[in-house]
Amino acid sequence: MAERAKVLEAEHEETSSAARKLSLERGEVAPLNVTARSNTEVSRTAQSILNDIAAGKYEVDGRLPAERQLAAMMGVSRATIREALSVLEVLGVVEVQHGSGAYVRMGTGGMVRNVIRWQLELGYNEYVDVLQVRSSLEVLAARLAATAVHQSKEPMRLLEPLSQTLLGQETALREENQADFVRYDAAYHVELGELSGNRTLAELLSTLRGLLKVWLEHSAKEREDQELAYKEHLAVYREIQMGRSNAAAKLMWNHMVSGSDRLIAANLQATDRHLFDESLDAPEPPVGNGEIPD
């Protein structure tokens, strides 16, 4: 896995510069601009602004100093300030209003600040590692969710929040509303974590999703990808609804592998069907006192 990641990173380095240039020409922030390894000066500047916000120097909904003033304060160019603010905007920390300035939009206490710092520091290989960890935990969540539904006296009540996210995705597809689809896609995984009944698991998944925030928001832009994600979500839901833990877990694994491929394709222009070394044929660990029969 480590050797494969190095090969992927080397391939990516050949195209990353051109990809970032193209993203900037389109008025977008290239995903790798939020990592320390892509531009250390921008990363340090973004981290410095983040630290000032965390220290209470700038309040939520308050306006940051003008670019020229920030550049003078930090000893960097206005271009560096502009890109650092763009990074923080992608992460949801600030909002840049053209002609008005940059405003603080997110508090940075506790876990929120840590997640943002990790986002600033993660390199390509670490993102792949996070994808692997998240995938395994999503599989566990699907398995536990099916178990919970199987054991519940009111399974439909438990499933209602998850089913609503599917309805939202279906509506977004019909109306071709990408923003809504991304929102309901995220909600699906949040509700799945809740349905698992494991509070720690749900919080871990939320944290990992925060780390992947930039990548996730650059994915599922193509209708074909959205339709595939919806079909995969629906298939997992049906197995959970039937209380079939093994089937739900396997379908979720398939979804996470294809979803990770889509993330990499959308963010790094690299597609590979073998992101994970683990086999779906590997023995599945038992849940509780035993497996639920299919």
TrEMBL record:
SUPFAM superfamilies: GntR ligand-binding domain-like (SSF48008), Winged helix' DNA-binding domain (SSF46785)
Keyword Magnesium: no
GO MF annotation terms: DNA binding; DNA-binding transcription factor activity
Domain HTH gntR-type residue range list: 39-107
Taxonomic placement: Bacteria, Bacillati, Actinomycetota, Actinomycetes, Actinomycetales
Bias-annotated ranges (Basic and acidic residues): 1-15
Protein name as catalogued: DNA-binding transcriptional regulator, FadR family
InterPro entries in the record: GntR_C (IPR011711), TF_FadR/GntR_C (IPR008920), Tscrpt_reg_HTH_GntR (IPR000524), WH-like_DNA-bd_sf (IPR036388), WH_DNA-bd_sf (IPR036390)
Alphabetic keyword roster: DNA-binding, Transcription, Transcription regulation
CDD domains on file: WHTH_GntR
Stretches for region Disordered: 1-22
PROSITE patterns linked to this entry: HTH_GNTR
